[in-house]
Design brief:
2 strands
């Protein structure tokens, strides 16, 4: 039996929402292009280290609602990582649920 890779949720941004996120979290990269270049290198590094990297898109409305529901008023890198980890867990749970129940288009 093949051993499963450790899983990493990776915060991913869309160009349209990047500035809205950055306006409230100045610790982010200065530009979307700067962030994307670094993110691609980071993902490749983690994949080479043996991780299954799951991109979790952080959209402003969804993310700030998530923060608000947890009483987080000043989100930063820790909260973005936690949001990505939560999203990756949801993906894995859904995959495992499908594997257990079977899958059908009917």
């Amino acid at each position: 039996m093949q051993r499963e890779k450790p899983i990493m949720g990776f915060a991913w941004y869309e160009s349209l929402g990047f500035d809205a996120l950055r306006d409230r979290m100045p610790d982010m990269s200065a530009t979307y292009d700067d962030w994307r270049e670094g993110a691609q290198k980071d993902m490749l590094h983690h994949e080479k280290q043996g991780y299954r990297v799951i991109r979790v898109t952080i959209r402003p409305t969804e993310f700030f609602n998530w923060c608000r529901s947890r009483g987080i008023s000043m989100p930063g890198v820790r909260e973005r990582r936690q949001f990505a980890a939560d999203g990756a867990r949801q993906v894995v749970r859904a995959e495992r649920g499908v594997a257990r129940k079977g899958f059908s288009f009917f």
